[in-house]
Amino acid sequence: MMGSVKKAESKKPPGLIDLVFSWSIADVCNKNLYKGKVKQIPKTFSSKDDYMKSFIYPLIEETHADLFSSMTTVSRAPTREILAIHISKKFKPPKVLCYNISLKRMGDIEKGEGTYEPEVGDLIALTEVRPKCIDDLNRPKGPYLIALVQGARGDSSPDILPVLSSKPVMFDQDAQKDKKGATLFAIFLTNMTTNIRIWKALNSEVKGGNMNIIQKVLRSDTTVGANCTRCFSEENESVSVSKARDAIVPFRLDNSQKAAVLNCIATRQCYHQNTVKLIWGPPGTGKTKTVASLLFALLRMKCRTLTCAPTNIAVIGVTARLMSLVIDSLGYDTTYGLGDIVLFGNGE
């Protein structure tokens, strides 16, 4: 009789929040924590997996640096007093430590007290004192404890906040009611929403259309060439490209920015080769200006365009630059005709 064979369960790799929760105060303050692991991102990639993996450690290092930076100014961080902490229905130790935090009502906050308004994705520290330095986040009676805000405060209970904690929370409810226990505070550290989204994208199994787009951008298919010789030659320059060239002259783009805009316009009308373009550049090289100039040219062509970004701030930045270009092109300050530009966000 053969014994039953159990399939080996594959361990789920730790998520970004798991890594952040695993850091001690010493880890957060250690600038060399990931020294040697963060490599320079190459200009070309051999595969989709190679592309995805190359951004993992830079994202971790950026998250680590943001957290350390916020802790160095923790004395000025937004705070809010906590009245009670209750175990959530989602509580499943030892990993899923979910709690519902009862915050002091805004109307009961006296002048000079913290008025922190938590948002989804906020990383907060739970402390017994208002911290004046990093050491106050890790006291003998109150060791380092952080939590992730998981949901918005409900309309029926606007001061109840659901969080995921890095460690079990010890809070004496009865002593607090009798004013005998230590007060607990929620200290804002940073918001993790964007980094979590990027982490999920880098670690997801991308299939279908999204995979095809990535493959085209990476040009891992050797049959995919560069620009189409039929559509990108000066002799065959289309009327649209010619008009776009004239339209962006006042914007004083440099050669690389101008080429990016015109190549995108030409690519839109090319049916021979790759129709995906990647505009890449480090901070401060004018990517927003380039994208806004491209959108302006497409707007002049009456081309319906959808522009997406990981944050509302990024979308607003591009929109503001585009509106500025439109107004400047008209020669006077007006909002007439800007109804063709629609801006909306996710409310986060």
From TrEMBL:
Domain DNA2/NAM7 helicase helicase: 253-327
Residue ranges occupied by any DUF6469 domain in the UniProt entry: 94-203
GO molecular function, one term: helicase activity
Pfam families xref list: AAA_11, DUF6469
Stored SUPFAM superfamilies: P-loop containing nucleoside triphosphate hydrolases
PANTHER family per UniProt: DNA2/NAM7 HELICASE FAMILY, P-LOOP CONTAINING NUCLEOSIDE TRIPHOSPHATE HYDROLASES SUPERFAMILY PROTEIN
Protein name per UniProt: DNA2/NAM7 helicase helicase domain-containing protein
Species in which this protein is naturally found: Davidia involucrata
Phylogenetic lineage: Eukaryota, Viridiplantae, Streptophyta, Embryophyta, Tracheophyta
